[in-house]
Amino acid sequence: MAQKTNLNTTPYFDDFNENDNFYKVLFKPGFPVQARELNNAQSILQNQIEQFGDHFFKDGSVVIPGGLTYDSEYYAIKINPEYLGVSVSTYAKSFIGTEILGQTSRVTASVVNVLFEEDSIDNQLTLYVKYLNSSEDGAFSTFSESELLLGEEDVTYGNTTISQGAPFAQVVAQDAASIGSAISIADGVYFIRGFFVNVSAQTILLDQYTNTPTYRVGLEIIETTVNSNENTKLFDNAAGFNNFSAPGADRFKFELQLSKKLLTDTDDKSFVELLRLDGGEPDQAEPKTQYNKIRDYLAKRTYEESGDYVVVPMDLTMDECLNDEQGNDGVYERTQTTRDGNIPSDDLMCLTVGPGKAYVSGYDIDITGSRVIDIPKPRATKKVDDSLVSFDLGSILLVENVHGTPVIGLDKDSTHVIDLYDQRRNSTTAGTGEKVGEARLYSFAPRNSYSNNNSNWELRLYDIQTYTELTLNEVYQYSKGTYFKGNSSGASGYAAEAWSSGDKVKLHQTSGTFAEGETISIDGTNEFPRTIKDIIVYDINSVKSVYQDASTLGLTADFVADTLQRGRVAPRFTRRDTIQVSAAGTVTSPGNKFTGIATNSIIRYQNPEYDRVVFNRVSAVAADGNSMTIVAVPTVAGVVTGSLPSGTIETGFRIGETRFDQGDNGGSLFLPLDQVNIASVDISKSNLTIYEQILAQSTNTLGEMSINISNVGVTSSFFDAFDGERYVITYSDGSTENLRSEQVTINNDGTIVSFTGLNKSESNVTVLVTAKKKR
Fold first, then answer.
1. What are the tens digits of pLDDT across the range 47-77?
2. Inter-CA distances, 421 with 264, 439, 558, 575, 715, Å
3. Which end of the chain has a smaller Cβ tally under 10 Å, C or N?
4. pTM listed for this prediction
5. Which helix (H) or strand (E) holds 586?
6. pLDDT digits 0-9 by tens, 496-547
7. Minimal CA–CA distance to 433: which of 467, 405, 404, 462?
């Protein structure tokens, strides 16, 4: 038998063995019936059921679904252990299933569970609730700290009744509200060790105060024997009542108990896994009935008639395995172990397989959550013909929310310059905030293809100059290009702009590091002595937007865009730390300091009021570092929400980091190849790709436009095939055409590219085209 309990012992002596081939117990008149024979009769029947069941169901499979529900919003509220001198534990469970009201917040909730002090990780009495309404200002809110909780209906425990509207408990004064996680199972039937076993509805707590659990969740199998001393229902009741002098037969009992295990706990002798959670995300699940031999037969037929196929495609994402903490977006830290049990290294990459469904060899493979698989990086070599190598001169600044297009190209008079600013854009005709640098650019194109404001664009820059700002002890009227040098540090730089007002000077082409309090020489002389009072050194992370006065360079609209901001953990914070953000923009985080966060930094966080991530700008950091002030930034539809919250919220956050890819070759003319380990390269038959910006074009009354290859200015060239990165059309009002392949036609010899479906009768249209020089 598949059961683990040995019944071939006193007092049952069930010695059934299926190898004996006994299929009936044949009782005879005049012979006494033995307990062993009665037990054997049951075991023979159970063995037949088990063999039939094994044909249809795998051991541990659900037969009648007991639906499994994962609750990642299991709201916890801590309450004081006593109220009015009475222990709340004595009546807390009586409130399960009732509604309660916060006296101060006016928030209502339904109580779903109670965790007593002795079961709590911090010895704290905790109610778990489902909030039913918002606070009076309409925002989602939890119960307030220190407020009284009132019952919304009469609750009776023992001989005592707590009347409707009467307080019954008080919320603790600090860190009262949090979000836990739980999992529930409904009534159902599972095939366990040859038996069809009932499972009763039950709920267990996964993590008490967090909702990112990492566990294996399933059913713990408990086998017991029950006698009449443990259950009085087993006494003889032939006379209509329990005869305590006539104990009945014992019972063999199965109990399925919902439980959790660590991912590293693989002891499944008495455990059936139903769901696996990793960081709060479902990773593996067995929600369906798992058929056994019959499934093999159906799979064989399915494969013979249909082969392998995908029903719901799985998204595949490739990432570095080891996070080197330098921006490679690796999946695992050095101290972690991968899901496959490997140590993260540079020799591994991680393939994330998203949810989907496929049939492989006839078997249905249903992935309900993402799975990360370790893959050794290839180390073999092979020959690659006609490989495309992009010329990667300069560095790439990723931007979004683009208006207009810049004038690009490697010009001789250095007019193709963009200005770098420290705030997100709030104008289409000027920069926003403080100018913190400048750069020259030679290329501007979508990273993939343009569709809306959320599309990412690549600004390829060179000669990037971020400023160093000196505050002097006395005003000095200087010209652009004035030379400043620190007398102590030896650091030097040139004035980026002529003096207009104030005691500040912005330097570019700086060398070395200036020191506060040192004197400086100006244009090589100390005739006009000045002392440095304060220093601000801007870097690429200071850049939040870019601007070019393109209307003075031949275009109708100026160019302006926001830099792409990816999140990173703030200095002195960890990934799990949270902040409290008030409606006035005051940010606090008890136990943490905001020192190290620069003014005008962007902070990113989630606000339940909005679907998209919120961006706010840091306007000030308190001198003691205990708080900082943030202000709203312009909201851009489809890109970012810039508003402050309507009430105080608690959330995780990240500091915005300007998305800047420093090319492998930087400003060098050496060209790095896509692959590092190259045996040999033959470029004698290579094509050269040419990007050209063509100005002052027009569309006709039908919205059509054609461009001849002669506009590119390179002989023996032809237009490249259409791709969203290769062809971009910008109108005079600064808008960009959402160009599709069906709008673009290239003639047979590649000398003319034609566009249709454009805005009609437009002038001053700017077109980016891509051509190839013939071999």
1. 888 888 878 887 878 888 877 889 999 999 9
2. 50, 11, 15, 29, 40
3. C
4. 0.50
5. strand 586-588
6. 999 999 999 999 999 999 999 999 999 999 888 899 999 999 999 999 999 9
7. 467
CB 257 within 8 A of CB 264: no
8 Å CB contact between 217 and 276: yes
Q: What is the number of helices (H) and of strands (E) in the chain?
A: 2, 54
**What does the alpha-carbon distance between residue 274 and residue 283 come to, in Å, rounded to a whole number?**
11
Give the separation between CA 169 and CA 100, rounded to whole angstroms: 10
- Give the span between the Cα atoms of 425 and 507, in whole angstroms: 23
- Surface-to-core class of residue 103, CB atoms within 10 Å of its CB (0-12 exposed, 13-18 middle, 19+ buried): middle
CA angle 450, 416, 744 (to 5 degrees): 30
Mean pLDDT of 110-126: 92
Structure tokens at 529: 């002595």
- Enumerate the β-bridge partners of residue 192: 195
Q: What is the pLDDT of residues 569-590, one digit of tens each?
A: 999 899 999 999 999 999 999 9
Cis peptide bond upstream of 29, omega within 30? no
CA 514 to chain centre: 41
Are 368 and 283 within 8 A, CB to CB?
no
303 Cβ contact partners less than 8 Å away, ≥ 6 residues apart: 359, 361, 362
Taking only the tens place, the pLDDT of each residue in 337-370 is: 888 888 898 889 998 888 888 898 888 888 777 7
- The answer on pLDDT for 637 being more than 90 is no
Residue 355: name the closest of 366, 342, 345, 344 by CA: 366
How far, in Å, CA of 561 to CA of 733, rounded? 15
Spatial distance between the Cα atoms of 576 and 581, rounded to a whole number of angstroms: 16
SS (H, E, C) 238-262: CCCCCEEEEECCCEEEEEEEEEEEC
Q: Is there a contact between 547 and 418 (Cβ–Cβ < 8 Å)?
A: yes
d(CA 720, CA 69): 53
Instruction: State yes or no: cis peptide before 344, omega within 30 of 0.
Output: no
- Which of 197, 184, 187 is closest to 66 using CA atoms? 187
The dihedral sign for the CA sequence 549, 552, 554, 555: positive
Cis omega (within 30 of 0) for bond into 406: no
**Contact status, residue 190 vs residue 60, Cβ threshold 8 Å:** yes
Instruction: Give the residue among 198, 241, 247, 244 at the shortest CA–CA distance from 219.
Output: 198
Residues contacting residue 383 through CB under 8 Å, at least 6 positions apart: none
CA distance 318 to 322: 12
Contact 623, 583 (CB under 8 A): no
Residue 756: name the closest of 767, 744, 740 by CA: 744
Query: Over the Cα atoms of the chain, what is R_g?
Result: 36
**Looking at the predicted structure, is the pLDDT value of residue 604 above 90?**
yes
**Contact criterion met (CB below 8 Å) for 630 and 616:** yes
The DSSP letter of residue 722 is: P
Task: Check if the beta carbon of residue 402 is closer than 8 Å to that of residue 453.
Answer: yes
Q: Which amino acid is at 30?
A: G
What is the β-pairing status of strands 177-185 and 68-78?
antiparallel
Total residues belonging to the chain: 775
**Inter-residue contact 719 to 771 (CB < 8 Å):** yes
Q: Which two tokens stand for residue 449?
A: 């293809």
Angle at which helices 293-306 and 35-56 cross, to 10°: 10
DSSP tag of 567:
E
Q: What's the whole-number mean pLDDT along residues 329-341?
A: 85
For 471, 486, 493, the CA distances from 527, given in Å and listed in that order, are 19, 14, 18
Alpha carbon distance 392, 460 (integer Å): 9
